Amino acid sequence: MSRPPTVDVHAHVLLPEVEALVDGLPGRAEARALEARRAGPAALAVSGPMVRARLPELTDPAVRLAAMDAQGVDVQLVSPSPSHYHHWADEETAEQVYRLADEATAAHCSAAPRRLRGLGLVPLQHPQHLVRALDHALGQGLLGVEISSHAPGRELSDPAYEPLWTRAEDTGALVFLHPFGCTLDQRLDRWYLSNTVGQPVENAVALSHLIFSGVLDRHPGLKLIAAHGGGYLPTHIGRSDHAWSARSDAGAGCARPPGSYLKRIYFDSLVHDPGVLRELVRVAGPDRVLLGSDFPFDMGTEDPVGALRAAGLADADFHAVRGGNASALLSTE
């Protein structure tokens, strides 16, 4: 049998059209100020030049494809940079943002449709628009949508999001959970803790909301992919299982121990540690881990296949994570 293509499910595109749309609008300056406070000045001083240096990879499909060739990656699942979420936006602006983001991402991927598959956006701050937004993304030929770990005043366990989970399950759409920012705010404003600690925390909190609230009980067919290996949750799931069994308040919302739900979630492999990756494969199952690089940002890996190989997985598991699982999920074969 031929081996499946190598598929990277965590790769981003930058959409200048979206930023031009929101530039100068009421609320944008306040949102940027909040982002700056959360990250801190030292992080901003590094991040700005880093992103500018990577603009060709983020915006030019030809440059992206050449980089994929160098990495040995056949297919990327391309999602908008999380900086395009703009959860501060009012209803009218939010609709313009997701429509423009969907269309621009689809156009970027159209340069090589067999190698570049895309995801759109939905405005989590306006739950009444989520189904329509998901349908718009699918209508553009995208495979689903990317979401953050929360929206202002709402966690992913909020009942207002039930129509989104139902529609995504019914259509088979992918939902890629990728946080942007952390509500620990200025506690993480030095040493890039806003990312190194903040992102794994946000992943763990968001997934816990989906598990403990029963969302995954009600929507067993939901195709949910968690970035950054699900953050801290998979390696600390024993504490969640203990709470579920020891406390009535913890066990009230979901039918089974929390650890059992890890086998219903897909996780990318971007954990930066071979031992952690082996543990992720153990607790979630080798059929639930997908190759991810965070292309082309500096918190990703330039050699996702090499990082996977370093985990020393069994040959069948290595090839499942390298591309077999994602090929089936994305229907790339």
UniProtKB/TrEMBL annotation:
Amidohydrolase-related domain: residues covered: 7-330
Name of this chain's protein: Amidohydrolase
Keywords: Lyase
Coiled-coil stretches: none
Top-rank taxon, per record: Bacteria
Pfam families: Amidohydro_2
